[in-house]
Write a structure and sequence with these properties.
The complex is a heterodimer. By secondary structure, chain A is mostly helical. Chain A has helices at 8-11, 19-28, 31-48, 50-53, 86-122, 124-139, 142-152, 157-166, 169-184, 187-195, 199-235, 247-254, 263-290, 292-295. The chains are: A mainly alpha, B alpha/beta. At the A-B interface, helix 1, helix 10 and helix 11 of A face helix 2, strand 6, helix 3, helix 5 and helix 6 of B.
Amino acid sequence: MSTVTTTADALAVPARQGLSSLVLARFARHRPAVASVVVIACLGLGALLADRVSPRDPLRIELAHKFAAPLTKGHLLGADELGRDVLSRLLHAGRISLSVGLAAMAVTVVVGTVLGSVAGYFGRSLDAVLLRLTDAMLSFPPIFMLLALAAFVRPSLPSMTVIIAVTSWMDVTRMVRGQVLSLREQEFVTGARALGAGAARIMVRHLFPNTVGIIAVAATLSVARAILLESYISFLGYGIQPPLASWGNMLNNAQSYFSTAPWVAIFPGLVITLAVTSFNFLGDGLRDALDPRSVQSRA
Amino acid sequence: MTAATRDGVILEVRDLVKHFPVGGGLFSGPQAMVRAVNGVSFTIRKGETLGLVGESGCGKTTTGRCILQLERPTSGSVVFEGRDLTTMDAPELRKVRRTIQVIFQDPYSSLNPRMTVGQIVAEPMAVHGLVTDAVKRQARVRELLGRVGLLPQHAARYPHELSGGQRQRVGIARALAMEPSLIVCDEPVSALDVSIQAQIINLLEDLQAEFGLTYLFVAHDLAVVRHISDRVAVMYLGKIVELAPRKELYDEPLHPYTRALLSAVPIPDPELEMRREHIVLKGEVPSPLKPPPGCVFHPRCPVAIDRCSMEVPPLREVKPGHWAACLLA
């Protein structure tokens, strides 16, 4: 090191303080979000292990147990109009509802991220066209659009996923586009261009990693939305068809018996509420934890 | 050494113009033009440092970006090693980008927060498909970090873990990775503490001596520019108003704007500071949307005459090597 100007400042190797540990610490401070993780884990495990933990076969009809109240005749959460065990059906319905939610989220996020990045990075006419398209889609009332679409296709897991994704990709697109628009002007992107990096490299290596935070938030919120929308379609009878159970169609079934056997309606409703609020809180917590303004505190 | 570098000139900027359209909607054209750079010409010789000074918004950064082809100039040419960059297509330009590099002002936004220092410094090699062997690339990264006074351990760190000075060193290491011949330094020290500024300036000088680098040093701090530059160009409202060897420019400025700038630099001697003449310019810098006719400086010039508002003064060689754009010089 003869000609090199070396100084105490340059040689200081700061203590390790990874980004991820910072994010985790901040997330842990958000109590509702932490509780939500527990709730989501329970719902997820219940759905995953539904075959093992279900007390009964969810499709087994026992007319003798018709409208059995909770905690009677061996039904923890009661039985429905055909004597099927509500708890077992809820656990199995979780599989359908959660997988529709997660699959729709995946499609939404992929479509939204790609379109948002392209619109934000290339700008100009491409941006204008994509933006008008998202605006046009947003201007339809989602329920109306959902039902219109659902009326044309045979309800199934993949078709529900696609329908929900078609009505939800716009939010992610707009969020990612906004983020990319501001990132694009940052000097490290200009620097990458000065190095000769192409558009693909800049988007994958420089823009995408810096949008992961908001994508994660958008993803959790879109799971909540997808679960709600699936319930909605199924509740109206256009979604997952009986005898297969989803949280939405269980609620649909139950509406006629609400005054006589309220538990048949209350428990699916409760689970939907729990799942949706949990995913929303999780998104909130992630948003706070990943906020770049606090991540990059220069202290 | 190619024929392109005749007279030792590595970069020649000729009549560079960059106008940015503003306003206008989907169906109407731009409402106005921001004349950020309005006919700038200069040359840089190999191994030299040309300082480019001026206040905020005078077009000095845009000039740098036009040279780097990050902004495509509206007109004019940028001849680097004998070849005009403005007419090059993308693949050709990509190759040239290896030899022209840039160091940015803000050490916080110029490094990708999601990449480690090692990845950042190795990126030029990855982009140009050089040193594909991972072990050799690591070795090269370590070598570069050593060159800029950092330690190999820094390679595993993220930018947010480093100090401002360290980050700027990382930016310099990245610029050096491709062994460039010209580096555009865009206010490389103005975001740093004064003590760190000196270290970075010294580092840049050491590297220049070691690798024979040529610098275009864009800054607004006259003291810093004086320290590092061989020649200095002063910009005002998109034009170069004076260009001279450092000593001449600081000792015998010819343009009234340069004089005013220099009189604003404090002298670290209170008595001298009290006694000397201070030129305080009246008014504000006119909008680059509507630059004044004639000499762009005439509305604020303390010595302007009637002719100044009608005639555009050309940048002419008043003394050998000393250029000024003033009718009275």
